[in-house]
Amino acid sequence: MKLFDFFLKMCKKDKTSILFLVLSPTLFFATYSKSMKENKSDVREFIIKKNWQYFYFAPLLAIVVGGLVKNNISNGFIVLAGFYAFSRVNEIFYAFIKDATSHLRSEEHSSTLKYYERIPLAMRSYLELIILYGVIAYILNTFFQSFSFSCEQNSFSSIWQAIYYSGVTITTIGYGEITPNDFFSQAMALYEVINGFSLIVVSFAIYVSRSIADEEYKPKE
């Protein structure tokens, strides 16, 4: 009941958050968990801790999914892993955009995180995006023939190849040896690029500029 009441409260507070709360259960539970903390310092510690946990979990998830797909084991877990990855990339996109833009306005923040502390959070999440989008592409390419890429047999040979494709996509390098063939794979590639740019260009730029403006780099007297 508390979770449902919290969801209604969030919907009333910010109408734009409804879509992301639905598409990202991880965002919903993270937001709920932060609301249960007693003070801003506890929220800061929670954010840093969860960021590290997500960062370590992403490669582990990729290894497990890669092994399960190769051996045709536990399709149910593979689907669940794909849903988790999709939920998490949506959470990263929404959380960092909202946090970064909130620092352009004079409003009270929920934690005591310094700007220089937010920068490594963004960098770890950026690397996490590369892995998670690779997991999503690998799973969709495995289960749906229409979700194809212009590589050998129109499918990824391994989870590493999918992560490599994700990396050259999000960094917009795009060597061209692997390209999305259909509408859905192209749409996902576009969303990944937007997600990556929002994290690096928007969030990173705001955090660095505000850190310099607030002179956080100077030692306290």
Question: What is the makeup of the main sheet?
Answer: none
List segments where confidence is low: pLDDT < 50 over at least 5 consecutive residues. none
Mean pLDDT: 84
Note the beta-strand portion.
under 5%
Structural class of the helices, strands and pairings?
mainly alpha
Please give the domain count. Answer: 1
Count the helices. How many?
8
Number of strands: 0
Protein model, in words:
There is one protein chain. Helix 2 (17-23) crosses helix 3, helix 4 (40-70) packs parallel to helix 6 and helix 5 runs parallel beside helix 8. This protein has 221 residues and is mainly α. It has 8 helices and no strands. It has one domain (47-105, 112-213): Helix Hairpins, CATH 1.10.287.70. It is 73% helix and 0% strand. The N and C termini lie far apart (49 Å). It has helices at residues 2-13, 17-23, 25-35, 40-70, 75-102, 115-143, 159-170, 183-213.
